[in-house]
Amino acid sequence: MELRRADLRTLQELLAVFAEAFEDRESYQSAVPSDEYLTKLLTREDFIPLVAVADGKVVGGLAAYVLQKFEQERSEIYIYDLAVLEEYRRQRVATGLINKLREIARERGAWVIYVQADHGDDPAIKLYESLGTREDVLHFDIEP
User: Which H or E run contains 9?
Assistant: First the structure.
């Protein structure tokens, strides 16, 4: 299994993996961003897309964002999406992706990596508890 930063082609494949893994084709496949948009996103230092590749295809990945803090000179990394295709789960793919992100975080001097999990998503909660400290918080979506 190869873990690496995504390029344009693998980022597009990762969107399809997210659609399948999250059972949410509407969000991840109905309006796929243009090559120009994704290429621009890939050049940003605050966007970290990682993919897991097996047998020449993307089987999992994550999309993370670097947040520069203002209260201290430090940054945090937020894992926005993380998914692995069902047939590749329980093979330490997600753990490998997070560990690769940890390497990047250390190189960049990030203070912490954080991720959210939904109530009832027991496999994700178990994984994240094995890697870090749980905080119970509330999440609110506010319309612009």
Answer: helix 8-21
